[in-house]
Specification:
Elements lengths: L1 H7 L2 E3 L7 H8 L6 E8 L9 E3 L2 E4 L6 H15 L9 E13 L5 E14 L2 E15 L4 H24 L2 H7 L1
Parallel strand pairs: 1-4, 2-5
Antiparallel strand pairs: 3-4, 5-6, 6-7
């Protein structure tokens, strides 16, 4: 099946986000607060294309065909699982996706890079505005039939790393309280 997808150069869907247990635990351990998730947008530009090109195939987001919505959904899942999500919370997390790319062209290694600006507001006042980024590498192959499915499979791990860097920032967690 993967070989057929690769050879036809068609469009594939990124896997739905699966929350990181470590990220959820970090949110649980970060104190008493609740937050809601606002809109995430995407700033078009080099290194932030939609869909993502993978050796002639293209990968789309399962969330309204938007990778900004992918990051938004990821934060919603992790806040919900940590019992920190509340639709009427004062603190609102929103953001802008600045960079989002996978490279499956390497002979033995695939890479991914993602960068986003995260904003926390309370009653219209910005309490946090920072750019976070993540880089992820995985074993790959020269053979497209191996490299492309592997890159697709690794995308959620890239987003998990981005959110881990956000949750590791004490200023972000403090802004939520």
């Amino acid at each position: 099946m993967a070989a057929v997808v690769v050879m036809t150069g068609c469009s594939v869907m990124a896997p739905q986000y699966s929350a990181s247990i470590d990220n959820v635990q970090k949110l649980k351990d970060s104190g008493d607060y609740s937050a809601k998730v606002g809109a995430f947008t995407s700033k078009p530009g080099q290194g932030n294309v939609n869909p993502i090109s993978l050796r002639g195939s293209s990968m789309n987001s399962p969330y309204q065909s938007s990778y900004a919505k992918y990051v938004e959904e990821a934060i919603k899942q992790e806040l919900s699982l940590a019992n920190k999500m509340a639709p009427n919370a004062n603190a609102e997390v929103s953001g802008t996706l600045l960079k989002n790319d996978l490279d499956s062209s390497g002979f033995s290694t695939g890479t991914g890079d993602i960068e986003a600006r995260f904003v926390v507001k309370k009653q219209g006042q910005i309490l946090y505005d920072q750019v976070k980024s993540a880089h992820h590498e995985w074993p790959s192959s020269f053979a497209g039939a191996v490299a492309i499915p592997r890159a697709i499979q690794e995308y959620p791990n890239l987003v998990q790393k981005l959110l881990a860097s956000l949750y590791a920032d004490p200023a972000f967690l403090s802004a939520l309280k």
